[in-house]
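S.,

Sequence below, as promised.
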Amino acid sequence: MYDNILYPTDGSTGSDAAAEHVRLLASTFDATVHVLHVVDTRHAGMGMSGAFLSDDGTGLSGKSEEGGGFGMVGERPDFDEVNDALSERGSSMVEEAAEAFGDIDTVTAVELGNPHSVILDYADANDIDLIVMGTHGRTGVERYLLGSVTEKVVRMADPPVVTVRAGASE
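The prediction came back faster than expected:
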C-alpha cells in the first residue's frame, strides 16, 4: 500500500513526535522512508523554522574570524555561506534521523526553498505514497502569523498526509 513514505523534518519536537509513527508505518508496509529537510530561503538572514540565526559561534550566524556577526547590528551576511551552513546542518539532521530508523530503507535529501513547496515537489518527483509530518499544534493568531507548513501540505498534497502533534502520546 505504501512503498515510499516522506518524512519532512526540521529537527523540532513536532518532527520528532512523527518519527515513531514513520517507523511503525515503514515497518508494517516494508516501505522506504525519504527523510527530507528544507532550508527555508524565503527570509534573508533567517534560519530553520523561521528562527533568527544565532550569534553563538555555532557557524550558523555568519560569525567572522574577527568575531563580528550579523543580524540586527553588524555587517551584511553572505547568504550563500549561510545557506551552505544551514544545508550542512540539515545534512547532519537527516543522516541522524535515517540512522535512527535502523534497518528500514532510507533516502536522505536536503533542499533549499519554500518548505511547503519543496515538500510537495519532492513528493511528486519521488512517487511518495504517504507524507508523515509533525505539527506544533499552534492555533489562532499564532498560527496565522507564523503560517503552517504542515497545514499547507495537508491542503495541497496529492498523497495522504498523517500529522502528529508535538507532545502527542504514542
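The longest helix spans residues 79-100.

Coffee later?
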